[in-house]
Structures are given as C-alpha cells and as structure tokens.
C-alpha cells in the first residue's frame, strides 16, 4: 500500500523558513519521480518543485526559484522541500506526490500517488 506522509508545515512570519518532509512507503522509492504541489483556497493545485528518481533533474516554479530547494534521500525514502524567504502568497496546503517514472513534468495530473497535505501559513 503506497503511503506518502507530509510533515513540517505550520505558521511562519514573512521572510521565515520551513522544511517540509514527506516519508514514503509501499513502493520502490528510488524508481519514482517525486513532486511538491500546493493548493491555496479558491485556486487550482500547482506544481512547486519536482525531482527525478535518480536525483539528476529538478524543476522549480518561477515563483519559488531561488527560495525553495527540493531534495530526496533514497536511503530514508524521504523527499524534502526547504522553503526560505517565505511570502504570504506561499500560503497553501502543500502535498507531496509520486509517479512511477524516472522524471515527469511538474504538473499534478501526471502524478499517481498523493499525501494528505500539510498546511503552510505565512503571516505576521
């Protein structure tokens, strides 16, 4: 049974940092592309950052380039999203997702498995 469990969300002031983690189980982790997506109230789910199964390629949405970093630890079956210089517009529920392929476009409809999400709120 595939499981993706996000953690690390919370309330942070503008300019602050958070590190999201997503622990995976039930599948061959190092054979899957992984992604972080977010969905704000009233908006569509969007790709934030994605990483290939072999850690060779990463993708970032323009809105987070230079502020967010995606990484994966295949030994720990975990993918991370380091978020720095957070802005109020980063407020959303953040989801991790997995797809059984080396790499994938960072769009939600290409991903097969999803976590339950973790809330990130950036506010003073």
Mean pLDDT: 96
Order of helices and strands: EEEEEEEEEEE
Q: Treating each run of at least 4 consecutive H or I residues as one helix, how many helices?
A: 0
**Whole-number radius of gyration?**
13 Å
Content of β-strand: over 45%
**What's the number of extended β-strand segments?**
11
Instruction: Estimate percent helicity.
Output: under 10%
Report on the structure:
By secondary structure, the chain is mainly β. It has no helices and eleven strands. It has strands spanning 3-7, 10-12, 18-25, 33-39, 46-51, 58-60, 68-73, 78-83, 92-99, 113-114, 118-122. Strand 4 (33-39) and strand 5 (46-51) form a beta hairpin. It starts with a strand and ends with a strand.
Layout of helices and strands, plus pairs?
Blueprint (H helix, E strand, L loop, with lengths): L2 E5 L2 E3 L5 E8 L7 E7 L6 E6 L6 E3 L7 E6 L4 E6 L8 E8 L13 E2 L3 E5 L2
Parallel strand pairs: 2-11
Antiparallel strand pairs: 1-3, 3-8, 4-5, 4-9, 5-6, 7-8, 9-10, 9-11
Task: Write a concise keyword list for the protein shown above.
mainly beta; seven-stranded mixed beta sheet; globular; 124 residues; 11 strands; four-stranded antiparallel beta sheet
């Amino acid at each position: 049974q595939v499981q993706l469990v996000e953690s690390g969300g919370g309330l942070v002031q503008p300019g602050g940092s958070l590190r999201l983690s997503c622990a995976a189980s039930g599948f061959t982790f190092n054979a899957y592309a992984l992604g972080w997506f977010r969905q704000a109230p009233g908006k569509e789910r969007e790709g934030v950052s994605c990483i290939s199964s072999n850690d060779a390629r990463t993708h970032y949405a323009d809105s987070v380039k230079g502020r967010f970093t995606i990484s994966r630890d295949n030994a720990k079956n975990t993918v991370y999203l380091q978020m720095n210089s957070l802005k109020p517009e980063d407020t959303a529920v953040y989801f991790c997702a997995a797809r059984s392929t080396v790499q994938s476009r960072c769009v939600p409809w290409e991903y097969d498995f999803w976590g339950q999400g973790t809330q990130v709120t950036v506010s003073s």
